[in-house]
Amino acid sequence: xxxxxxxxxxxxxILGVLILVMxxxxxxxxxxxxxxxxxxxxxxxxxETMDGMQVxxxxxxxxxxxxxxxxxxxxGASLHTFDIWTGQLKKEYRVIRMDxxxxxxxxxxPDRNYSMERYTMFLKAFLTRRGVxxxxxxxxxxxxxxxxxxxxxxPDRVEKLILIDAAGYPMESESRPIAFTLAxxxxxxxxxxxxxxxxxxxxxxxxxxxxxxxxxxxxxxxYFKLTLRAGNRQALVDRMAMENDMKKADRIKDIVQPTLVLxxxxxxxxxxxxxxxxxKDLPNSQLVILSNSGHVPMEESPDESLNSLLNFxxxxx
Length: 317
Fold this sequence. Notes:
Layout: H1 2-26, H2 33-40, E1 45-50, E2 53-61, E3 69-72, H3 83-89, E4 94-98, H4 116-129, E5 135-140, H5 142-153, E6 158-164, H6 178-182, H7 188-192, H8 198-207, H9 217-227, H10 232-240, E7 259-264, H11 273-281, E8 285-290, H12 297-300, H13 302-313
Parallel strand pairs: 3-4, 3-5, 5-6, 6-7, 7-8
Antiparallel strand pairs: 1-2, 2-4
């Protein structure tokens, strides 16, 4: 037993030394909201004070005639992931995007509660603030899970649903971004809140793309800098600790709104089998599989994925 104790102490010492060395070479200080605004909150960005947060959002396009489109990003991303889609959609629709609490410029929930119930409550309050009583609601990954759970709880507020590589069913990932993995490991997840190599961010982005050549330096820089927004790294650790709360998939069958299930065939995080399951369980759905896309088709293959969305909406290019 004494020898085992010595081994454990030695391993902890080695781990501590490794963390110290990593912090010296790869430690990154938090960036304040003010430091990031000039780059990532140019017009038409706005901020809304809610629950002790400055919620970053963009509200663009035609505000009359058609039901507004609301788009929700996934874990570790930001509203910028829908930039290209919005450029086209705002010609016909009012398009609203926000940085979810814990990500982008919005920063963390003050209570550190990242449950799905908390997110759907946040979305309802945000839409009410924006005067949106009914919308076409779309989301990617975590954003997709928020979207369908919001639709299940508030069916009168959702006209149509867009699920893009959405979370919701139990799954076995073929591969996960390294940051997601580290965020679940005790001790290492603490180090993650101040040790963030740019190379790790690049690897995490490449992990969700089918074609890694599309991961540009500018794209990595955006993900990297927004990861460093004060509070976001701890928020990722807190969110990963709550990921198993998405156990309400039985409610999907009750969602009757017309739904587009849009998926990247080469998604290694949430397998394409889950797309077929959504399509089977949703009584009024269309399924589109993009053969050359990964987990974020609206960002990796914006033109192809947007064409599928426009067809679903009945918009002629």
